[in-house]
Each structure stands twice: as structure tokens, then as C-alpha cells.
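Review box. Two proteins, two foldings.
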Amino acid sequence: MPTGGVNAPVPVAPEATPAVDPRLIVRQEGIKGYLAEFRRRVSSGELGSLPVVVALIVIWVVFGSLNSSFLSAQNLSNLSQQIVGTGMIALGVVFVLLLGEIDLSVAYVSGLCAALFAVLNVNNGVNQWVALLVALASGAAVGVIHGLFFAKVGVPAFVVTLAGNLGWNGLMLQVLGATGTVNLSGKDIVSRLYTTIYGQQIAAYGAAVIGIALFVIASLVDAARRKAAGVPYRPMTDIVVRTVVLAIIAFLAAYTLNQYKGLPLALLIFLIFIVVLDFVLRRTTYGRKVFALGGNIEGARRAGIDVAWIRISVFSICSTMAAVGGLFLAAQIQSASQTSGGGNLLMNSIAAAVIGGTSLFGGRGKTWSALLGALVIGSIQSGMNIEGLSNAIQFMITGAVLLAAVVVDSLARRTQRAAGRA
């Protein structure tokens, strides 16, 4: 006979454990809570920048052990300057990837804008500031054109920007004319922005202090605002830990730069772009709309977000950053030529954004991804050049690193879905 009767107790399912804001855990448990939250994030696939930081450390250790000159102040200082052009382009790519889209035209857009500046300023005697504004405005206009075809006409971004890759390359060749190469004077604004290095030690250390101070102020203001609103906020312990880590990195970088020539202006400009665009993405309504659109386009549309405007503006930002990167690359070689925007620039720019931690699937990434990814690719190239390895080997290893980054991203997303966080 079956056991139990009408009065038998009915088993009650255990209540689900409510999700707790990680800032609340850290505030209640201090360092113990901080470590527990770190373990939870890793186990649930929220890896953040951890994989690329580990990869960068491994790359530096390997090349440093093979040749001591790799970690010399001279090589690291040169590396920090050389990654700026590609890093600027990657910074724009981050915005497009956040939408879950791709821009295959950025390399030749950068070459076109560099050619416009060189031809206007050098060949036609146009004021350097006017030529600079025309180049940047042209980059922005190119992005608007891409965005209109994508957002309004409905042509896939892949097709639009692939057509742009061909079309803007042709226009660049047309602008350069029969000579094919225009040498910069070396005294123009673009060249001076790239070549200027502040030799006084106070410059690098001062920049580090200002950066740390801005971080502390922003963290305290954000915590105070959240506390006043009655929502979980970042505890003082967390702010102190993050500040200490940032200070170590910043002052170590400043010390290394000062051991060679000093603080490159190009690197400082790159960092300013990263910080400003990071603020736009994480602290403004516009940035939240970008993330919302990348996470769930239909949900964003139903929430009243102007999807077409966001898409057009994002592609415009991407092409503008491509123009900035192209100008720095032209200043690096002191010319704009038919090879500008060619080679592996497109792949390196996209790879830098992806390797740095920006998801190809949209909705997840940071502007700092451009810096980290550019450092990884630049470090691989620098280390292999020192070792005298061929470009073929460099391409294969860079491709393997890119594939590894995408695999990590895919596995992280799968883990997040399994943990109910995606």
C-alpha cells in the first residue's frame, strides 16, 4: 500500500538564494568577501581582463628570458609609443564590437584620412590645423555613411564595411595621385604630437599622480552617490585595494619611461582618449544605450532607444578613431603612401580589441581592451623582431593568440549561461 495519507506533510521546495550585489558582500566581509566575490566571478565565467593580463605577463616573461633587452626601458618606451596608432583604431573598433557588429574598413579609412592631411598640408599648403580638422571630419563622415546604410537601408555591417574597405582604398590612391607618397615635413602638428617626449621626470610622475587622483575622486563620488540613493556601493576597502594596484602600475610605468627619454606625448594622448571614452561608455546615458543595444537589440528598441541613431553614431566614432590612428601611423613613418592602411593593420586593429577582452558577441567590453590588446600584439611583434623571427611566424602566433581570445570569450559566455548570468 502507498505510504502517507491526506494529512502527510507536503515537502516544500527550498527557497532560491537571492542574488546579492557583490559590493554588498565586500562591504560586509571586507577582504574575505572581496576574495569570495573574485572566486565567484571566475567560476561563473566573468573573467574580465584577467586572461589578457595573464597572457601579457607570460609574453613578457618569455621574451624577457630569451633576451634581456626586451624588458629594457628603451624597448618598453618605444613599444608604448609604437602601439598608439593601432591602439587608437582598436579603440574605435571596441564601440562597434559592443553592438555585436564589425567594421572591416577601419584600416583604409585611417590611410585615407592620413592621405588627406598630407596632401592638403604638404602639397597644397593648407593650414595644418585646417588639414587636421578636414581629416578628422572626413573620418566621421565615412562612419555616418556606413551607419546610414546599415541602420536605415538594412545592409549588413559586414557587407557595408567590406565595400568601404575597397572603396576607401581606391579613394586614398586617387587622393595621393601619381606620386603615391607624400612625405610629412616633420614640423607639422601631427608629427609633433607623435615625436614629442617630455624628458623631465616630473612629467611622467605627475601624469601618474593625476591619473590616480582622478580615479580616487571618481570612486569616492560614485560611492557617495550610491550611498545617498540607498543602493549597494563600493566599500572603502575595495577602493583602497584598487587604488594601490593602480598606483603600483602607474608609478612603475612612469619609472620605466623616465629611465629612457621620458613620457611620450602620443602615449599620454592615447590614455586620455581611453579615459574619456571609458567615461562615455560607463557613466553616460549614451554609453548605457550602447551596451543595451549590444546585449538585446529588441529589448533596447522596446525600451524606447533610438536604435538607428546609436548605430550611426557608433560607426561614426569608430571611423573618427580610425582617422586619429591613421594620423599617428603616418607621423610614425613620416609619410602617407599607397601602403597606408594596408598589410596586417586591419587584422591587428580588430585583434587588439578582441584580445583585450571585448566580446565578439556584443554587450561586453571596455575601452581599456584597446590598450591591453595593443600591448599584447605589440609585445609579440617586438619580441620576435628582437629574436630575428620572420613575419610568417609573427602572423601565426598572433593568429593563435586571437583564436585563444575568442575561445576564452566563447567558453566564458557558455559558463555564464550555465550559471544563469547571461
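Next protein.
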Amino acid sequence: MSIQNFGALPDGDHVLRATISGHGLTVSVLTLGASVQDIRLEGVDHPLVLGFPTLEPYLGEGRYFGALVGRYANRIAGGRARLGGETLDLDRNQDGRHMLHGGSDGTGTRNWMLTTQQADMVGLADHLPAGHMGFPGAMLIRATYQILPGPSLQLTVLATSNELTFCNFAQHSYFNLDGAPTIAEHRLRIPAQTYLPINKDLIPLGAPAVVKGTHLDFRRATRLGERLDGPVIDHNMCLSETRSLHMRPVATLAAGDVTLDICSTEPGLQVYTAAHLSGGAEGLGGRPYGRYAGIALESQIWPDAPNHPHFPSAELKPGQIYRQVTAMRFRRDGS
């Protein structure tokens, strides 16, 4: 474990970078957003996630890169939701109309506290006061990144609140496994039979629809280059109707001789092919990230669940413990 000063925020608070290693995997995590900044696999000469070598891009074009977003990941339509018989008025940080990733001061933009430091593990914590971004309940969040045999990077998120509230976190790394300018040669498999159709604001329209016959059918490994010229992919894949106590496979991504297997306790997987990227600051590979430079595979509760009673519940009761576990196993051909 090594800890470095990664730079200072506009308010003078310092961002730290913790680097952990084990089993042939090396991972760097920033206190800003509890963000995975870099992942390196032994024998591979390029990073496996999009990230930046300096702090400044994370305050602009790199917002959410690798971050742990919440207290409600993804979108809540109109920034409004019913909870406990009351209507919540939430921060509307998406075009002034909808809430995205917990609001303008969501956990993906906050500077977390570094709590645990070991050679192969780093722990972080954040505290959200009652009323933060419009949500009731003071919330304590703890996140642990640990490298396990495989090698696998396992993320465990624990959260508690002193009032009834909503809780939904997602790890927002953009993966690129072959170091190419785009993910066109990546092959993606997701064992989802249904997905959530969305409107122009990326808000779910209602009930899930079957993936068969659509550009979102990844039940068999599919080369992404075949799908990038079609409709933008930024959808929730419906893996189950409830959260699980145990992890289950949610996605396999492969490119070159590297394969990523993701398992999670969460009932949904948001898939986004980074169509908005247009190049700016140099990334970890020494070049700006253009369109389709990476793919986000975000394990989470379904978007806008507070406004859809038939979606998996995102309610967290007082004293109840929210627990998400998501594991990212990296392997090379033959390993």
C-alpha cells in the first residue's frame, strides 16, 4: 500500500491516491469520489480502465470516471419521489430537470475519508447529513476495495441511515481491456432477458421489455463494433427483480487476451458505451479519450425505482444495513 497526494480541490482539501497490489493486480483509488483511478494486470502493458494522471480532469470532463456514485445512482425522474407518504424534492442536476447520481454533491463528487490501509485493501468512508440533496436521513457509507485471488477487485459498500431513505450505489469505471482507441473489438455478454426502455432524457418508460431482436441482446458474446453505429447504448439490463445476499454473474467483457468477469448482488446493470466523450485532457494512456473509448458496466438497483412500485425497492429503513458486493475478476487467456 502506498499513499500519495494527488492534488488540492478548489476549497483547499487534498485528494489522496492509495495504491494496492496483490495476486498480479495493482489498483489505484482516489479519495475523490472513492474513484478507481487505474487498474493494471501483470503481463499487460496498458491500463484496464479510463482515468487521468492528474486531478483537474476529474473536476470536469472526467467527472464520475471510476467513482462510487450515490446516494442514488443513475436517475430519478423530475427530481421527485414519494417516500413514507411524503413527496421528496431532490436536487435536479441533469439539465435542471432530473436527479443524476445523487445530485450535484453526490458521493461520486465528494472527497471521502481514507479509513483502512493494507497492502491489498483500502477502505473509505463518507457521511451525508439529513436533507442532503433532498434525501431524508443522515447516512454513513463505508466502501472497501480489496484484491482477492483470481485476481479479483472486490468492492463492498455498507450504508446505514437514521431515517427512512433511498439508497443505491454504483461503481462507475469505464473499462477498456485492449488499449485501443475504442471498444469496438470488445465482446460483451450479459445474461439479461429484459431491459428498461427509456425516453430522450434516459428515464425509464415503465415495464421491462425483452432484449430479443434489439441492439441490447447480449445473451451471447457480441462484438461491440456491431452495435456502436446504432442507437446509443445507455440502458439498464434487468438481471432480477430483487437484490441478492450473494453475488451472481452479471457480465463478461473480453478484448485481446484479457477477460473481465463481473459478479454482483445488484438486480440491474447499467451499460453505457461512453458516446459523450470528445477528447480533452490526456488520459492514462497518454492520449485524450474520444467517443466509445470505454464501457461502463454499473451494478445497481434499477434507475428511477422510487417512482415505479414494481421495480426492485431502493428503500433503506432506519437501522437497516445496505450491503452491496461487486467483484471484478481479470484474467488473461490461459489463466
